[in-house]
Amino acid sequence: MQPGELLEVATQAARAAAPLLLERFGSERAIATKSSDTDLVSEADMLAEAAIRAVLAQRVPDDAIVGEEGKDVPGTSGRRWIVDPIDGTVDYVYGHPQWCISVACEGLAGVVFDPLRDELFTAHSEGPATLNERELHGPPPRELAHALIATGFGYERSVREAQVAGVAALIPQVRDIRRAGSAALDLCWLAAGRVDAYYEHGVKIWDTAAGQLICERAGLDVVRLDASGPLPSGLIAARAELIGQLRAIIG
Ligand code: IPD
Ligand code: CA
Q1: Using one digit for the tens of pLDDT, what is the confidence trace for 184-236?
Q2: Torsion-angle region of residue 121: left (phi > 0), alpha (psi -120 to 50) or beta?
């Protein structure tokens, strides 16, 4: 399958989860916690992931699947799908309108769908990043002092303490910080020029697989952040000129 066809499969899979998520949004309750008391999972997460996996099982039965909520599926094709049925689960459970569905065929195609705004972010490895078919090229050049920076925090106390120290160092030197609650949307909003950079330690592959490809195809750099002390590895995404300056501050 060509990257363009894989993108069409990813779009079908992401859209399959949207109706049930929209129907439950505003009345959903968490049913369990995961890595810590603050890390929620809802029934909607489970149902949405099942809807996405059903499309993948039908369209690309030989491919491997990794999902945030379900078991890994081995494959034979050499391709791997990475699924986050709700990125921004805390927002979703609170009725806060910043969450999305993220589906990627690793390195080849990625879709992030925000059904509340009907915004579909896409990219494949041979084409542009798009938002509802409009090409995305990231934010215009801005110096660090005028940059709006998106970030996020993990669910573990020791990690958060270190993350807050990074934000404390950064915030006097930039325009402002945004913590919206969905890493996948943070990356897509960067590709759309709604922020100037995004970084976060401790994100998982399902949080970022689709958004990373969308940023790269929008012409942005996405670079690994090494683990350091209590901080797990992570990533930083921005125009190339900002990356070094940001890394120097956040470590
Ligand atoms: C979380 C969101 C959040 C980020 C966390 C992620 P989830 O994913 O992307 O913005 O700060 O690191 O775990 O738990 O809502 O799927
Ligand atoms: Ca996630």
Answers
A1: 999 999 999 999 999 999 999 999 999 999 999 999 999 999 999 999 999 99
A2: beta
Q: Is the dihedral of CA 14, 19, 24, 25 positive or negative?
A: positive
3-class SS string, 120-189? EEEEECCCCCEECCEECCCCCCCCHHHCEEEECCCCCHHHHHHHHHHHHHHHHHCCEEECCCCHHHHHHH
pTM beyond 0.85: the answer is: yes
Ligand 1 centroid – CA 35 distance (Å): 12
Ligand closest to CA 155: 1
Cβ 89 under 6 angstroms from ligand 1: yes
Using the mean position of ligand 2's atoms as its centre, give its distance from the Cα of residue 182 in Å: 7
Atom nearest to 84 CA in ligand 1: 16
Residue 45 Cα: closest atom of ligand 1: 16
Task: Give the distance (Å) from ligand 1 centre to CA of residue 2.
Answer: 30
| pLDDT single digits (tens) 46-105 | 999 999 999 999 999 999 999 988 899 999 999 999 999 999 999 999 999 999 999 999
